[in-house]
Design a protein that fits this description.
- 40% of the residues lie in helices and 21% in strands.
- With 376 residues, it is of the alpha/beta class.
- It has 2 domains: 250 residues, pyruvate-formate lyase- activating enzyme (Alpha-Beta Horseshoe); 73 residues, Orthogonal Bundle (Arc Repressor Mutant, subunit A).
- It has a 9-stranded mixed sheet with strand order 7-8-6-5-4-3-2-1-9, with helices on both faces. A 3-stranded antiparallel sheet has the order 10-11-12, with no helix packed on it.
- A hairpin with a 3-residue loop joins strand 10 and strand 11.
- Helix 1 runs parallel beside helix 2.
- The structure holds iron/sulfur cluster.
- Iron/sulfur cluster (SF4) binds next to loops.
- The site of iron/sulfur cluster has 11 residues, from loops.
- It holds the Pfam family Radical_SAM.
- Belongs to the anaerobic coproporphyrinogen-III oxidase family. HemW subfamily.
- GO terms for molecular function: 4 iron, 4 sulfur cluster binding; coproporphyrinogen oxidase activity; metal ion binding.
- InterPro entries: Coproporphyrinogen-III_oxidase (IPR034505), Elp3/MiaA/NifB-like_rSAM (IPR006638), HemN_C (IPR010723), HemW-like (IPR004559), rSAM (IPR007197), rSAM_horseshoe (IPR023404), rSAM_sf (IPR058240).
């Protein structure tokens, strides 16, 4: 079943490390919701089967009012058939999750909350320039659970200078004590054009340590495995039966449409990319046009994308699929490229599937790039 991704490009504050597309001005929020509803209508023929997942990402979708979110749901339901069991996720920030907000979200078709906790330490949240504090981080989860939201996922960040191993252990233990069925954890990366990159450049901040990130990734995998979580993707851990439908479909190459500024869509062959610019997006939709750029992926692009995403998952890279979808030549070259990993202990090959070992997970990107096939 296909999916819908909706990008809500607004945030209260700019987190220092973030390079997602957002504006901290809500001046055009109403116009944005109207434009998003229009884009949903324009794309109604792109998906004819039922929708199995809807994902509100951003930015901070929980910044929108119940009325605005309801409008978007009305547009979706008017133009698509949403499966009765569809997973409907909204990204939220702890400071937005007041009792009233949770009540409102409960009245919408939302059935999964993704909460941007990042850390349970105030000093870390201040360093990141997050809009919430440590008490809100903990309380919002309990409030959501008391209101009946059981399908919750938390985001955590590791590998930043303030985070000692002791604090990282505490953050993971705290997340586990909240009894959520899903946790996503990301190593901090320094993206160009972010405040963090500027701080490092001007020496206000020490560079990020790769060694620290690797060590904390190992702590993460170890602790979550002991707590009964399955690492079904490098950065995603779930209790059995709680894998994210939307993300899993994305990694498995299922079709989805992207709505809103900077959103991407994919139909198995073409990638559709909206501009990461609110004004340009609004103006183009206003003129009843789609603002997207379409990139048709070459066979090599599709193969490399498959390697990149599948290798990071619990399902691994399927050699039989490579043969069927990309042909014997791709299969032979992949087998040839695999030989360079023979004595490293990073890959497991079993039943025609290539999977990362625990130590291989530390080098996922490097391994994937060595398996890529590029046009000569
Ligand atoms: S709330 Fe999320 S999207 Fe917004 S600036 Fe922070 S990390 Fe980026």
């Amino acid at each position: 079943m296909s999916g819908i991704y909706i990008h809500i490009p607004f945030c209260k504050k700019a987190c220092h490390y973030c390079d997602f597309h957002f504006s901290t001005s809500l001046k055009y929020a109403d116009e944005m919701v109207e434009a998003i509803c229009k884009e949903i209508k324009f794309k109604k023929d792109r998906i004819t089967e039922s929708i199995g997942s809807i994902y509100f990402g951003g930015g901070t979708p929980s910044i929108l009012s119940q009325h605005a979110l309801q409008k978007i749901f009305d547009a979706i339901n008017t133009n698509f058939h949403v499966n009765a069991n569809a997973e409907i996720t909204i990204e939220t920030n702890p400071d937005d999750l007041t009792s009233q907000k949770i009540k409102e979200l409960n009245q919408l078709p939302v059935n999964r909350l993704s909460v941007g906790i990042q850390s349970f330490f105030n000093e870390d949240l201040i360093w990141m320039n997050r809009a919430h504090n440590a008490i809100e981080a903990e309380d919002c989860i309990k409030r959501s659970q008391d209101a009946g939201f059981e399908n919750l996922t938390l985001d955590l960040i590791y590998g930043y200078p303030l985070l000692t191993d002791e604090k990282w252990n505490f953050n993971i233990s705290k997340a586990l004590s909240l009894e959520v069925p899903h946790i996503s954890a990301y190593a901090l990366t320094v993206e160009p054009k972010t405040a963090l990159a500027q701080f490092i450049k001007t020496k206000k901040q020490n560079p990020i340590s790769e060694g620290q990130s690797a060590e904390q990734f190992i702590i993460l995998m170890d602790k979550l495995e002991k707590a009964g979580f399955e690492q079904y993707e490098i950065s995603n851990f779930a209790k059995p039966g709680h894998y994210a439908v939307h993300n899993t479909n994305y990694w498995r190459g299922v079709n989805y449409i992207g709505i809103g500024p900077s959103a991407h869509g994919f139909d198995g062959r073409n990638r559709y990319m909206n501009p990461a610019n609110n004004a340009q997006y609004l103006q183009t939709i206003e003129h009843n046009k789609l603002p997207e750029v379409i990139e048709t992926l070459s066979v090599n692009d599709r193969f490399n994308e498959y390697i990149m995403t599948a290798l990071r998952t619990i399902w691994g890279v399927d050699l039989e699929k490579i043969k069927l979808e990309f042909g014997q030549e791709f299969l032979e070259e992949t087998k040839h490229n695999l030989r360079s990993f023979d004595d490293k202990g990073w890959l497991l090959l079993s039943q025609d599937k290539i999977k990362l070992t625990q130590s291989g997970k530390l080098f996922a990107d490097q391994i994937a790039s060595e398996l890529f096939i590029v046009n000569e």
